[in-house]
Amino acid sequence: MPDQKPVSTIVFDVNETLLDITTLEPLFARVFGDASVLREWFAELILYSQTMTLSGRYAPFGALAGGVLQMVGANKGVTISDEDVAELKSLIGSMPAHPDVAPALRKLREAGFRLVTLTNSPPLPRRHR
Length: 129
Description:
Blueprint: E1 9-13, H1 25-32, H2 37-54, H3 61-76, H4 82-92, H5 101-110, E2 114-118
Parallel strand pairs: 1-2
Keywords: Hydrolase
GO molecular function: hydrolase activity
Protein name: HAD family hydrolase
């Protein structure tokens, strides 16, 4: 077996892996009467995001998020207003990191790992980096 190089780079997804999407639950509770619809919406959002990426087309995560919110609303017979979509986009842009993210990333960086994220979200404000 050939010599293997040790892992030196760790790649992370951003949404849900690093950022806490449960902060979106109040919106889903208000719009659908059930906060758990968040999980259905997020699964669909990831599916459509991957589909767009694999087909070589780009759409900002917030635009996809709003479109998928409208689709889930249509599937459930719930009207999604422009204000609901705007609120979702605003909330997505301000999701906090999970509490353990910063200390864990610091430890990994101090251990010499190169840390990389892959996402189609807009850039994070400096305070999240």
